[in-house]
Amino acid sequence: MNDSKMLPAKNPRSPKQTRGHERVTAILDACAHLLVSQGVASLTMHGLAREAGTSIGSLYHFFSDKQSVLDALGQRHIDAIDRITANLLAIDPATWVESSSQQVIERMIMPIMEYLETHPDLLQMISPAFAPGQLQAPEARERIQATYARMLALRLPGATAAQRETYVTAMLGLPIGLFQVALENSQLKSILLLQEVPRAMKAYLEAIERHHAAR
Questions:
Q1: 183 part of a folded domain
Q2: What is the pTM of this model?
Q3: Are 172 and 137 in the same domain?
Q4: 18 and 116 share a domain?
Q5: How does the average pLDDT of the chain come out, rounded?
Q6: Per the record, which residues fall in region Disordered (predicted)?
Q7: What is the pLDDT of residue 214?
Q8: Residue 87's closest CA among 115, 119, 123?
Q9: Neighbours of 206 (CB within 10 A)
Q10: What band does 108 get if pLDDT is binned at 50, 70 and 90?
């Protein structure tokens, strides 16, 4: 007899755990919606409970206060960005070398821009003006930097380490102004994030590649 067939399923999630996970997800979804529709100043625990369709007691079972909900929402965004950057770091070197500048930007920038476009609450949370405090994600930023640095090392082998560091810093900083404009102009958000940020990044990448090709 094969003993492995008698082993229980590995770490099965109980119905109670599943319900708890679904409730937390509903609460975080409600928080994201209220941040965009009403602003953080109007966010209350009772309002969150109503929006999430749960009792105030259930809300307090999972979160001690409004800040703890915001912290969990921020962590959910950080985890999502981490998954995006992990996929980028897994792309093989030949793909980065052989792709056009347009293709590089589409692979590297669009997944993050699409996430920001569909999660406008994150735009608020990364703004320096966010009242509870700008979302800090140094490890996520480092991983994004690592993807840019890896791509540039492959495409610009003749550039010095100092030059590549400058280029990486510029590529991180270029979209920030448009992020703020998108936050302040919701009607232009999709155009700015999905068209203008990639356009600016592509132009910059092409410019530094021309600079090194001419040397």
A1: yes
A2: 0.88
A3: yes
A4: no
A5: 91
A6: 1-21
A7: 84
A8: 115
A9: 15
A10: very high
